[in-house]
């Protein structure tokens, strides 16, 4: 301490940085050092007079000695402290890691050699107080593994205050839309708290900064690295303009001036921020610029909302006085199935081409060996890949990958990509292919016309199932169009998937089989209506799917009958065909409600057949009790459809109780509907009871063991609540299963007695 024999002891992990110390910080409330407020200490090597500053933000009184050396030029926290207290910033390291001229007798030493030398010098002066282990975080270069040193170097900055405000105002006024809207919060958080943007980079590639340092010939001591000479920099579009500015700056002729262009290049995001208008020929007012700028939509990842999107908006407004686009759609980030960011070091990166074409496990592992990862990381990555892809990645095709990624967009910020789900959509591609190829047999002798939909709707030949199918097509068209317009791609994918799987494949295709197979003259009108409806449903359905699955839909669309015979307006490719739109006049809610009620009956019929193990080739007799009104009308008008999908020999609606046999299986659908199935002669009760008794034994034994375990002494005191809860849930499940089996046995015994008495 200046003018006293007192010493102020500080600790550091980087001893050589004390050569650049410009203060010692203490906590203003630390009683140990209150007498030192406003005083100075003397640097032991260069005699520099260093102030003692009070800083409650930086200093933790309980850590170390409670006194902290401040090196503003070589530590981020010290840098902020230096700005708060207006300290001197002294750089002691050169670009090569050696001590520079500010290091007194240590000048020229490399940083780690200097660390040892400083320690020895302190020991010689009697100022060394000891050494202790201390855990700390080190910044390491990802490529070389070298320890990074924080340093202050001259950089170029852009003041973003005005540009940022215009950018936030554009969003707040609705001139710029960010979708999903939840990301507006991130936009405001970044831009409302904007700082000056460092745009210079010390790289070998990129746009060189258009700045020149001007000196006069013969002038000495004017260094471009000295920030005192910042006024000597001139910024210009080219060297000729730079000379003109330098002449005015230095007040001499061009021949007396030396210009040295800065070797730094612009930040990649600065160059990228110019993209929307620079590709159009800006700064020249080209025809492309006038025709295509501003653009309309930007689609990109949410992780670069600030780094790229905000920079494009700020620079577009600043340099062209126009927003570069009016809408920003941010897609989710693709992660692995466990939610981890895809990283080479984790071995969880999925190459889209490997998903499209398939890839063996051996190939995946070989790629890791061919990379430049350390051996330890390769071993860990291989272990993860062997766990995730034991059989490699199956070939899925680009349609399945695209469709799968669209399905994931409903998750929001992240896509946790599970390959099993993508494989599932490959199976959907197969289902689409097989269903369409199968359906082509139904329309092989059908000739469509250019106005087939209008002709069908006005024909008067349509059954309820046909009207239902067209209505569902219109509903799907409306939903997908609305979802595309509002960028809800996941919902659009789900609507298209449900249309094909549920409405087309599971319902309509099955319903029309007996209609299409019946080629009698009496059925000619019904058959034509069914074929026309099927052709329309498939053709329009393929167009709906096309943006999401372009390849398989193009192939199937060309295979439809009538292709090439629909007149001059017929498109040559599905890509050129109009996207389906909803005609509200073709929506038929009554038919949809009727089909919904009919499908409830059909599902009950299937449930009964499954419950009593009825073979597929055996047709059964069903009795339906249904409330009067719309449900009864639906059942009666679609009896044939119930027979088709329910595999029924007969379906009777609201028959008298006396006419219904006693040996029936029953399913109560809801308060308006009950379905009964005649099982007389169809069920071997003794065999079914024997199977159920075996299941009961397999259930009651573990149930009894679990009950004994839970009743054992010490269970309540020694077992964790988590295990208790798990055991109780398992016991409840076993009890319910045992009860259900016992009820089924009793039901079979009762039915056997009824059948014997009958």
Parts with pLDDT < 50 across at least 5 consecutive residues:
none
Question: What structural category arises from helix and sheet content?
Answer: alpha/beta
Alpha plus pi helix count = 26
Number of E-state strands: 20
Overall body shape: elongated
Helix content: 40-55%
Radius of gyration (CA) equals 40 Å
Main sheet properties? 4 strands, mixed
User: Which strand order does the major sheet show?
Assistant: 2-3-1-4
Distance between the termini: 114 Å
- pLDDT averaged over residues: 90
Measured by DSSP, the beta-strand proportion falls in: 5-15%
Give a short overview.
This protein is α/β, with parallel strands linked by helices.
Structure description:
The chain is of the alpha/beta class and 758 residues long. 46% of the residues lie in helices and 11% in strands. A four-stranded mixed beta sheet has the order 2-3-1-4, with helices on one face. The protein has a four-stranded mixed beta sheet with strand order 18-17-20-19. It is elongated, with a radius of gyration of 40 Å.
Structural features:
single chain, 758 residues, alpha/beta, four-stranded mixed beta sheet, 26 helices, elongated
Outline the secondary-structure elements.
Layout: E1 23-26, E2 40-42, E3 49-54, E4 67-70, H1 76-85, H2 111-125, E5 157-158, H3 161-172, E6 177-179, H4 184-191, E7 197-198, E8 200-201, E9 211-216, E10 233-235, H5 239-250, E11 257-261, E12 265-266, H6 268-273, H7 275-278, H8 287-292, E13 297-301, H9 305-320, E14 327-331, E15 333-336, H10 352-357, H11 361-370, H12 375-388, H13 397-408, E16 414-417, H14 419-442, H15 452-457, H16 464-485, H17 489-511, H18 513-517, H19 524-545, H20 550-558, H21 589-611, E17 620-626, H22 630-637, H23 639-646, E18 648-653, E19 664-670, E20 673-678, H24 685-711, H25 715-718, H26 721-757
Parallel strand pairs: 1-3, 6-14, 13-14, 15-16, 17-18
Antiparallel strand pairs: 1-4, 2-3, 5-7, 8-12, 9-10, 9-11, 17-20, 19-20
Helix pairs in contact: 3-4, 3-9, 11-12, 13-14, 13-17, 14-17, 14-19, 16-17, 16-19, 16-21, 17-19, 19-20, 21-22, 21-23, 24-26
């Amino acid at each position: 301490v200046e003018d006293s024999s007192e010493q102020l002891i500080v600790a550091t992990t980087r001893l050589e940085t004390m050569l650049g110390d410009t203060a010692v910080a203490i906590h203003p409330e630390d009683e140990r050092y209150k007498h030192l407020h406003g005083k100075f200490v003397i640097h032991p090597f260069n005699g520099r007079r260093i102030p003692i500053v009070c800083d409650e933000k930086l200093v933790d009184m309980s850590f170390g000695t409670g006194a902290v050396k401040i090196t503003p030029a070589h530590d981020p926290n010290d840098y902020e402290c230096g700005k708060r207290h207006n300290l001197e910033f002294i750089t002691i390291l050169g670009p090569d890691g050696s001590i520079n001229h500010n290091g007194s007798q240590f000048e020229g030493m490399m940083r780690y050699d200097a660390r040892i030398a400083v320690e020895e010098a302190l020991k010689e002066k009697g100022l060394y107080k000891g050494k202790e282990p201390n855990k700390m975080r080190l910044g390491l270069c990802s490529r070389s593994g070298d320890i990074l040193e924080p340093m202050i170097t001259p950089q170029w900055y852009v003041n973003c205050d005005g540009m940022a405000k215009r950018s936030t105002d554009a969003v707040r006024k609705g001139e710029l839309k960010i979708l999903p809207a939840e990301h507006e919060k991130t936009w405001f958080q970044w831009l409302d708290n904007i700082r000056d943007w460092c745009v210079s980079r010390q790289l070998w590639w990129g746009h060189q900064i258009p700045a020149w340092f001007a000196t006069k010939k013969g002038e000495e001591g004017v260094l471009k690295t000295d920030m005192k000479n910042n006024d000597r920099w001139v910024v210009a579009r080219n060297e000729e303009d730079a000379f003109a500015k330098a002449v005015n700056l230095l007040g001499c002729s061009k021949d007396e001036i030396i210009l040295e262009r800065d070797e730094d290049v612009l930040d990649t995001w600065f160059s990228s921020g110019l993209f929307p208008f620079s590709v159009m020929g800006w700064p020249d007012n080209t025809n492309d610029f006038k025709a295509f700028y501003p653009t309309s939509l930007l689609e990109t990842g949410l992780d670069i909302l600030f780094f790229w999107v905000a920079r494009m908006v700020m620079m577009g407004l600043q340099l062209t006085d126009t927003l570069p686009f009016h809408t920003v759609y941010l897609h989710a980030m693709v992660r692995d199935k466990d939610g981890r960011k895809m990283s080479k070091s984790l071995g969880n990166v999925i190459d889209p081409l490997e998903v499209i074409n398939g890839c063996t496990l051996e190939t995946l592992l070989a790629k890791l060996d061919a990379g430049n990862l350390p051996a330890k990381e390769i071993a860990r990555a291989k272990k993860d890949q062997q766990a995730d892809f034991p059989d490699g990645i199956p070939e899925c095709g680009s349609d399945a990958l695209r469709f799968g990624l669209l399905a994931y967009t409903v998750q929001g910020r992240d896509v946790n990509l599970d390959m099993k789900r993508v494989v599932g959509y490959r199976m959907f591609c197969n289902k689409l292919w097989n269903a369409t190829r199968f359906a082509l047999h139904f329309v092989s002798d059908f000739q469509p016309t250019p106005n087939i939909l209008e002709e069908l709707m006005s024909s008067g030949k349509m059954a309820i199932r046909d009207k239902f199918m067209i209505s569902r097509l219109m509903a799907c068209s409306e939903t997908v169009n609305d979802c595309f317009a509002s960028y809800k791609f996941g919902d659009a994918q789900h609507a298209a998937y449900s249309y094909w799987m549920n409405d087309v494949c599971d319902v309509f295709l099955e319903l029309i089989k007996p209609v299409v197979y019946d080629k009698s003259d009496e059925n000619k009108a019904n058959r034509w209506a069914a074929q026309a409806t099927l052709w329309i449903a498939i053709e329009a359905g393929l167009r709906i799917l096309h943006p999401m699955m372009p390849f398989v839909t193009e192939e199937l669309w060309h295979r439809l009958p009538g292709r090439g015979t629909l007149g001059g307006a017929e498109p040559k490719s599905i890509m050129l065909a109009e996207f389906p739109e909803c005609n509200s006049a073709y929506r038929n809610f009554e038919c949809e409600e009727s089909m919904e009620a009919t499908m409830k009956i059909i599902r009950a019929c299937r449930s009964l057949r499954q419950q009593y193990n009825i073979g597929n080739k055996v047709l059964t007799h069903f009795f339906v009790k249904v409330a009067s009104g719309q449900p009864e009308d639906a059942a009666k008008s679609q009896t044939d459809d119930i027979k088709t999908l329910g595999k029924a020999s007969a379906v009777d609606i609201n028959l008298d109780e006396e006419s219904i046999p006693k040996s029936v299986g029953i399913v109560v659908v809801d308060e308006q509907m009950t379905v009964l199935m005649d099982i007389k002669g169809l069920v071997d009760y003794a065999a079914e009871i024997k199977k159920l008794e075996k299941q009961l034994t397999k259930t009651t034994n573990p149930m009894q063991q679990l009950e004994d375990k839970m009743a054992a002494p010490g269970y309540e005191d020694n077992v964790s609540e988590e295990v208790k809860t798990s055991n109780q849930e398992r016991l409840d499940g076993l009890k319910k299963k045992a009860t259900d089996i016992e009820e089924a046995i009793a039901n079979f015994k009762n039915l056997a007695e009824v059948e014997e008495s009958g």
